[in-house]
Design goal:
fatty acid biosynthesis, lipid metabolism, hydrolase, ACP_PD
Length: about 200
């Protein structure tokens, strides 16, 4: 899952949301993090990624991507699932998306000085482009994938992925609607067995 889903699946506190994003930037041992909330959320972030990457429904829909895109299927589906989440937000969260995003931005800025430089750069981009809100529109997906491609070491088909994703929208959205409640249940069960 990508940023928006991770923020939504975080515990409903500011530091937990920061910890979920930190999961993309802290690659070492979780014990190296001093904050217990961050440790737990980075562990959960990793568990969410493993669950998603091995889920049969996600694997099946990944197989629908063309061969050039399939290699980047994890990235493509993470971004597109955030699009599915954002455009049908009221189905998944009672709080308006704009309020939720404002809270996430405030949490990230509150801990900004303590975060790794690469993460601070991503926070700057996330806020300046209003990426989480932009996911509601298809153009936000295209922009996100182009941005990711610019950070990769090798050329990739990600900037051209938007055309293919538009044709697969019904199938991808159906996969998300089936998968996301199962992911939410997984997260609830994980929290029940990994309390602070």
């Amino acid at each position: 899952m990508n940023y928006l889903a991770h923020f939504l699946l975080a515990a409903p506190q500011a530091r937990a949301r920061v910890g979920q994003m930190l999961g993309d930037f802290h690659k070492g041992a979780v014990d190296a993090l001093a904050d217990p909330v961050w440790r737990r959320e980075v562990q959960l972030h990793r568990a969410i990624d493993r669950y998603t990457d091995t889920h049969p429904r996600v694997l099946a829909v990944r197989g629908e991507l063309s061969a050039p895109l399939r290699r980047y299927g994890g990235i493509v589906l993470d971004v597109y699932f955030d699009h599915c989440l954002a455009r049908d937000w009221t189905r998944w969260c009672a709080q308006p998306l704009s309020e939720f995003v404002a809270e996430v931005h405030a949490a990230l800025l509150a801990d900004y000085a303590q975060l790794p430089p690469r993460m601070r750069g991503s926070i700057d981009y996330l806020i300046s482009t209003q990426l989480l809100l932009a996911y509601r529109e298809f153009s936000g997906v295209a922009r996100a994938l182009t941005g990711i491609a610019s950070r990769l070491r090798r050329p990739s088909p990600l900037p051209q992925a938007a055309v293919e994703l538009r044709t697969l929208d019904a199938s991808l959205n159906a996969a998300f609607v089936e998968f996301f409640p199962q992911l939410q249940e997984f997260v609830n069960e994980w929290r029940n067995t990994h309390s602070l």
